[in-house]
Write a structure and sequence with these properties.
alpha/beta; Rossmann fold; about 10% strand; seven-stranded parallel β-sheet; about 35% helix; 11 strands; 2 domains; about 475 residues
Length: about 475
């Protein structure tokens, strides 16, 4: 009888936590969406009352809003993370909180917010080079979606090649997207582009990057046994149902504001009908059935599978900022503050700091220890963000002050630990204050002043030898 009461109590606590988490996420999502709509309405009203400056839009005629003085600069591409969005979504709201305005040559692509890292890497390539997104025949057949996706009539950097490399800055899952893209370039994985190489990427900067997975995925509903399937009742199940219904209704103006990125799965009611929706909700078809979405890639197991094929290349510069909002008191890990953590993430920081891998389930890798994964920022574990380390640790160097790594050497992951939660440096820059400017100023300064590639000119008869 006592054991039954304990089980009921635990179940009641889990349901209460699920309810609170769902309400908090819905309220925050509604806040972001309503802010975007309010911003657009304000802009429309302003244009009605005041005559707009005809010359104000000249700068945006070039891809990425580059001015004519900046066209020769290698672009800095900001890649958003999970539930993120690029330029053109959510009205005038900026995922990177306006950081893109700190440099004249910055691109902010809009990729699938819940699509797999593989699919997002493919989309990023065609966003830059132009053309119709090709997800690959083998992958598309295996995952049950169309081989082709969105068409970019004009690439945002069509001249991109080894002589015109790019700086990438990825937040959260965006950092792993860039690593997968660089490996695809090295593997010449894009049909019609036989000359790609890893040297198309000049530098990768990670901001709270998801390199080695996160225990958050298990708390939200991924099964720790395999890192791919969902628990029957969990936050991610509610997310799955909501996304399926959102994409099924396929309301153009709503998807113009925000799109989860599953258009290539053809989930609209016009194509699959009512029974198609039922089939998706039952888990028999769609991205959640095939596993071709972002969460399986963010488990420790999924990240290890990705990392098995990803290299750190000798001619590319790497820097990462790992965030942390925990501290230890008497060997117990707890949140480091109350006011310094976003309300959306406070409970998550506490949960992750107390996470224990189920004792009846095999650990994700040999040598796994719960205490190594307790420091976190509410979404990712700090150990995961420093540099790729699972299943094989890549070359790395801890940096206390930026000057400690000058001059930078390629092929090494320089990393810095920053006090902050997972969304401190995005969406709302007022929260981060001066720290926001210091971080992004250092990123752009590094790209423009301290990261470069010198190579002797190649004579025509020496090419490809």
């Amino acid at each position: 009888m006592t054991k039954r009461i304990i089980r009921w109590g635990v179940a009641a606590l889990q349901l209460a936590e699920l309810f609170v988490s769902s309400v908090v996420h819905l309220l925050y999502g509604f806040y972001i969406f309503s802010s975007a709509v309010a911003g657009d309405l304000s802009l429309a009203l302003n244009e009605c009352l005041f005559k707009p400056n005809k010359n104000a839009g000249v700068k945006d005629d070039l891809p990425g809003g580059a001015s004519t003085n900046a066209v020769n600069l290698p672009p800095i591409v900001l890649v958003h993370g999970i539930f993120g969005f690029g330029k053109g979504r959510l009205g005038g709201l900026s995922y990177f909180a306006g950081a893109e305005k700190k440099d004249e040559r910055v691109l902010v692509p809009d990729l699938g917010s819940l699509t797999s890292i593989y699919d997002r890497a493919r989309e990023l390539f065609y966003y830059l080079k132009g053309g119709r997104v090709d997800y690959g025949e083998e992958h598309s057949n295996a995952c049950g979606h169309s081989q082709y996706g969105r068409v970019y009539e004009r690439g945002h950097y069509p001249e991109w090649d080894e002589d015109h490399p790019i700086h990438f800055v990825g937040h959260s899952a965006g950092a792993q997207v860039v690593r997968v893209l660089q490996q695809m370039l090295a593997d010449k994985a894009f049909n019609g582009y036989e000359n790609t190489s890893e040297n198309w990427v000049l530098s990768i900067t990670s901001l709270s990057g998801a390199f080695n997975g996160t225990t958050r995925t298990y708390l939200d509903g991924m099964q720790p046994e395999d890192g791919r399937t969902l628990k029957p009742i969990c936050l991610l199940q509610l997310c799955r149902v909501g996304v399926m219904i959102y994409d099924w209704f396929d309301i153009p103006w709503l998807k113009g504001y925000y799109n989860f990125g599953f258009d290539h799965f053809n989930l609209s009611w016009k194509k699959i009908g009512v029974w198609g929706l039922v089939d998706c909700l039952l888990g028999n078809s769609g991205p959640f059935a095939s596993g071709d979405w972002i969460l399986p890639d963010l488990t420790i197991q999924g990240s290890m599978q990705l990392n098995c094929h990803l290299q750190t290349f000798p001619n590319t510069y790497y820097f990462s900022y790992a965030t942390k909002r925990t501290r230890k008191i008497l060997s117990v890990t707890i949140p480091s503050s109350i006011l310094g953590i976003h309300p959306l993430l406070f409970i998550r920081v506490l949960q992750m700091s107390q996470w224990h891998h189920p004792p009846d389930v095999s650990p994700p890798y040999k040598g796994y220890r719960d205490e190594d994964w307790q420091d976190n920022d509410g979404a990712l574990n700090t150990i995961s963000m420093t540099h790729p380390r699972l299943p094989i640790e890549h070359p790395s160097q801890f940096v206390k002050n930026d000057s400690d790594c000058q001059p930078m050497q390629p092929g090494i992951w320089y990393y810095k630990i920053v006090e902050g939660d997972h969304i401190l440096f995005i969406v709302n820059r007022e929260r981060a204050g001066v720290q926001f400017d210091l971080i992004y100023d250092s990123i752009f300064e590094r790209c423009r002043k301290h990261v470069f590639r010198k190579s002797p000119p190649t004579l025509p008869n020496e090419a490809h030898q």
